[in-house]
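Hello forum,

I keep getting stuck at the same step: I have a sequence, I want structure tokens, and every attempt I make locally crashes halfway through. Rather than fight my setup again tonight, could one of you with a working pipeline run this one for me? It's a single chain of 337 residues.
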Amino acid sequence: MSGLNADNWRRLHGGFFEGERVMITGGAGFIGSHLADALLALGAEVVVLDDLSAGRRENLQNHASLTFVQGSILDRDLLQNVVAGCSYVFHEAALGSVPRSVELPLLYNDVNTTGTLNVLDASRRLGVGRVLFAASSSAYGFNPVPWIETMPVLPRSPYAATKVAGEALFRAYSASYGLDTAALRYFNIFGPRQSPHSAYAAVIAAFAKAYLSGEAPVIYGDGEHSRDFTFVANAVHANLLAARRPEPIRGEVMNVGCGGRISLNRLASQMGQELGRPDLTPVYQEERAGDIRHSYADLTRVRTMLGYEPVVEFREGLRETLSWYRSILEVRRAIAV
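Reply #2:
Ran it on my machine without issues. Output:
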């Protein structure tokens, strides 16, 4: 299944969210907008808060049950207003990109760490039932794979450090105030709506743009880095399962991935074949500061706690994603002509 069909979401999650008021920070962004789609399909009343620094209003449906508020998680007064009456808060807002965080560490700390603290404090003051956090597999650093949640955190970039700080705040707010929270460590999420146009674009997005523009993809390092690429529907599914769990979660950290991995060299070859450009071989550049060598999720804990299994495997998700990139990049070329 695509994971993006309303009937599929209803089959997976039934009527649990029917009539519930939920808030998504960063809800106009890549992952947040897919989460909004699923929650609307499940009958929730969805409030989206996004400053549109990375998200796009066009990512969101024009839906009677969706309220869009443009603003920042650094605005504490605004957070009090938008969180009011919400049963669940899905905290997806953050500045992404490891290399950009190396360039702008203070900005990343302000938005990702202080912003997360603001979301938690508004949630505990206003009696939210559970807050879900978009944590990151970058917390593991150079731990040996597969990565298990009991391993020490070894962040190698300011971005990773802010995500680790967020996990600590989530656990602390559960322990200190009784606010139930969960931290979902995403593993290299990809899919439709992930922008290919930034200098810091994620690897699948960057490769797709290169191939569809007739250019060789750029690989930083030797290309034997490997990633547990995870289609966006799996991240959405994990969030919904975490929100639904009847027992308290108390800030526990859980991996959200597919439990496999592929090297960047193999990924480039596969994408070149899929996009009809096997002639375009990668260009190799110096490895970037903060990059990790391998990522690979052990899914034991998330299976045990949430009953999570990936709803879309890598190959199926990649095909759907490349189809989307073809459509948007061809439209852009047509407009340019």
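The first helix runs from residue 6 to 13. If your local run keeps crashing, start a new thread with the error log.
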